[in-house]
């Protein structure tokens, strides 16, 4: 007995300390000393499960909908039966237990009582608005999402009931029926007492007019437009919720800037947007599917499907195309070629100035070099499944609930959660409750990953510029982003980029199409098998679809020997190579060094040309050249872009080290303005491969999945790439911002088809020739012995004699040589008595005047 009463006392003490409401359970505990704690725990878990069970929500939702219907029936019936039921209803709830009393209302005594309360005592017929509240709550609960905003509804219901009841009570004060209810009457009486009849009329009229203006925003100067909304906010709202009986909500307005900002990104964006209104009440968590999804989907995908795969895209720039067409009409094709591409005669600068406007019509058109060239067609590419982002509502719900629960377990409450579904991952954006430290959430990264039992969780805390924290969770079902989708998009087709590359889709399904020319170089890293080669192919294919062979050349370096060999078929269209080399695709390390140095020479030569032309970059230079302001006789020519692709940079650095690093660093530093761009890929992004010099000159970097956080830091200066999920899932760091993309997929057979399509067309007689590079060490070891002449000695002599100018830079430009080699040739020409000695800044005197004399002279020299 004593034991029991002692236990009772202890329990009682606990009970009073805790909460009085729990007093029954502790007493039960007293009788059974250990079990009660368990029992209490179990009950909690069951309640939780009950709250999670969707059936509970459905039942609750249905109940609210029924209440709403009940109220409507009762109110409507009241309009006809109020007289008969008035006396009974005035007696109050006691009539419910009085079996002798009956009511005429369709819903009996309850209907009569409730209607009497709302209509007679409270808000008059404005009480009908309360039905919408129950309807809204019911619908939201039934579908467990924010179909309508409760807060907005509540706000408008409250304001509406007060305003309408007052207006009606005032306007129809003589009527027998209580149009404005008790509340309306009280307010209206008070207003009349304070402001008088006229003052009250004015105030109430103002309310009505203000509401109409707010709702319809009529254009006062043009009454015709009265019915149309002019405010963009209102338009959106009207479209979005045309069936809503209530005015639109502030919520959408608040969200407007963010949505607008994201709108172009939303080709197939879906957002569940939830406000955790009161963190402690889970019922407050509701969600909303914005109209953006369907609207944007229509915009984005219908537009894409309209384009038939067979449709030929003409990627030519509109301007050159029209000019070419215009000329086509006026001249026969053969004459045309001569006219357009014939080199203009040398002119003095003045002549150039004078004749420039007249010649504008005959602009040089580089594409006419291969005027029958056909751009590849879209039907060469394959489509991979449906491009629609599929989402599993249950998966979304479960992940969301788990995120909320996990955070709650660590005492982190959140205000709002929204989800954006991408092709491979879904981004859950959360707004933490006030006072929660971001670092706390960041530290829980692993715990959240564990609780969601998913790989590839990435936490972005905070998302720059959004004021939210992002949690990226991989989708159970991932969709492949077809290259075809990207290339058929308006964004790609209408792009005005110099070198548009279609890389993939962002997490919000925005197509990621950027200009390589502005990047200006790209560093790619990723462990083996994570999508690097596919990424390189995506870049090359997107350039091939948009560029003419005269506008673009690739220098392909492939130490692995197999990855890029597929492109050898387009050698005479798009590839550049060293003179005297058989293969355009470079696989040998020694040749790589020569090629990189040759590119450096090409860069220097291009800078000389730009300097002479007074242009700051290749675009300006080419514009001047095509408008025939530059003289080809002086070595000027149309400069194609050159894109250097190195697949497996690590291999090169391991075998050649500085010899490779130095020219790469030089090119990366300087080549941008002259139209040379680098794309460098590596499997091993370690610091000895991606050195500080290289990194500093590659502001744009891509990371596919890498094996460690250190690798991720090396490439991106941030972690995260080690948590990617492979198969083209990538992070791109551009202008200091990191974005997650799903790389476009283009399979080898597709690339084969594209390459064959181009390769079987007429090309140039040979690949684009890079300047010859001779290792300077080899040059220095030789002397100026005439028997050991440079292989280009005769060509140089002929060029100098033909032009009668003893200038080293002439040799450099016309023979595409580096400064050192041209200088050495000039020295040899001097030793051979063909040119005179160096005269400082002036060109050397040419001692042999004609070609015939030169032939004789050379024969004499043997
Ligand atoms: N964007 C993508 N979408 C879908 N699947 C992809 C994508 N990229 C790569 N994959 C899948 O991953 C495989 C390996 O890709 P890829 O050959 O590009 O890897 P890698 O990084 O170049 O490997 P390695 O360095 O060994 O050559 C592909 O065969 C393909 O099945």
From TrEMBL:
**Key word Transcription present:** no
Sequence segments annotated as region (Disordered): 225-249
> Which domain of life does the UniProt lineage start with?
Bacteria
**Bilayer topology term:** Multi-pass membrane protein
Which residue spans traverse the membrane? 59-80, 118-142, 192-214
Query: Cell membrane: is it a keyword of this entry?
Result: yes
Q: Where is the FtsK domain?
A: 508-713
**Which compartments is it annotated to reside in?**
Cell membrane
Task: Tell me which PROSITE patterns the record gives.
Answer: FTSK
Q: Where is the composition biased (Basic and acidic residues)?
A: 233-243
Read off the InterPro entries from this record. FtsK/SpoIIIE/SftA (IPR050206), FtsK_4TM (IPR025199), FtsK_alpha (IPR041027), FtsK_dom (IPR002543), Ftsk_gamma (IPR018541), P-loop_NTPase (IPR027417), WH-like_DNA-bd_sf (IPR036388), WH_DNA-bd_sf (IPR036390)
Q: Which Pfam families match?
A: FtsK_4TM, FtsK_alpha, FtsK_gamma, FtsK_SpoIIIE
- Specify which residues bind ATP according to the UniProt entry for this protein: 526-533
Record keywords: ATP-binding, Cell cycle, Cell division, Cell membrane, Chromosome partition, DNA-binding, Membrane, Nucleotide-binding, Transmembrane, Transmembrane helix
The family this protein is said to belong to: Belongs to the FtsK/SpoIIIE/SftA family.
Q: What is this protein called?
A: DNA translocase FtsK
Q: Which organism is it from?
A: Niabella ginsengisoli
